[in-house]
Design a protein that fits this description.
- The protein has helices at about 15-25, 55-70, 90-100, 115-130, 150-155, 155-160, 175-185, 210-215, 265-285, 300-310, 340-345, 365-375, 385-395, and strands spanning about 5-10, 30-35, 45-50, 80-85, 100-105, 110, 140, 145, 165, 205, 220, 225-235, 250-260, 290, 315-320, 325-340, 350, 350-355, 355-360.
- It is an alpha+beta fold.
- It has 3 domains: about 5-70, Alpha-Beta Plaits, CATH 3.30.70; about 80-160 and about 205-395, BirA Bifunctional Protein, domain 2, CATH 3.30.930; about 170-200.
- The chain has an 8-stranded mixed β-sheet. A 3-stranded antiparallel β-sheet has the order 1-3-2, with helices on one face. It has a 3-stranded antiparallel β-sheet with strand order 8-10-9.
- A hairpin with a 5-residue loop joins strand 5 (about 100-105) and strand 6.
Length: about 400
Amino acid sequence: MTAESLRVPVTDVDEGQIAQLEYSLAFIGDDVSDYQIDPEDGILRVELAPGADRDDIRQKIARLIERYAAREFGFKEELYFEQEAPVVNENVWQQLLERKWVTEVGQGHVVLRGGAARLLHMIDNVAVNRFAVAFGAETEVYPATIQCTTLDQCNHFTSFPEHLDFVAPLQSDIDVLKAFADDVRNGEWSSNLHEERMATTEFAISPSCCYHCYEGMAGWDLRPPGRCVTAILGCHRYEGMNHRTLSRLRAFTMREVIWVGHPKFVIGARAKADGMIVELARRWGLHCSYEVANDMFFTKDYAVKASFQRQQEAKKELRLIIPQEDTAVSVISSNFHAGSFGSAFDITVGGRPAVSACIGFGLERFAYAILSQFGLDPDGWPEGLRRDYQAFRSQ
């Protein structure tokens, strides 16, 4: 059988929502091998696997288009800062692979080394020594996995079900363990050897760093005005066919600075951090924007949640151009959660409900965006960025 294709007009979806529609199309189903929305004629072209159920896929696409065409709530747009810079016109991703600074080791999984790894660590160093230190942040260390009950309290299951990578051991039964080991010994490992041998799933690989902060303070009454925390964590988010280059990894590293406490304390700290983010973008000469944004909620109430975030300016992103991919990625996210996590985990400050906010640095994509804009040779980077990199290497 030969591959088939679908052509679907994309109507009534605003330009600002096209990227979110394209992201969600990656989860239409395993029978979709590729897809693309033509910006000229607004036609979605979908490549199907042989034997795919065309009607089922067409109905799923229609539901997604309806989701992102919803306009009754409005989507606030606010650009706080924008800066242009000369960028290279090179296939930086291919250069990273050829130099072996990046090795792909599975879908959305990479090994970084050489200049790419050094740049990532420099960015983290700046996040700690300029941001965390400025707020007197306490360092915390978190496990790679997180309780499913915690994710439920954070409403992650209902907002981002597509992200989840669950973790479960084999059953604690000597016969099951022996049979599994024997099957592998007599052949080779395959995923079907897990069938009916896995224990109940109680953990997932953490999709975010700050969730551990809140669950670790469950039931606390903080000393006013609150506390600031910093942590770094290897996070996991499954994102289907969106896993390409370093722009969107399945396994990635996140550095966060988190505030929990009185509203005035948290809101003031976040506002100060916003200014520091813009200052960093200026210093490094980045081709970027800092703007209001929303999470890519993967639910039918997307329009309500996304519109609320934008109206409240609850999410802001520093977005860097990736010239070779004709796109931009968020490398720093600033988030105000109001009392969501304080209420979920019964965190108070001086006996009153606590609010929270955080800024998160996506380290791999930040490093990749810099290399994509300015090339692999630090001598060609903007002066402020070059100086900070050289100072870090001389430590």
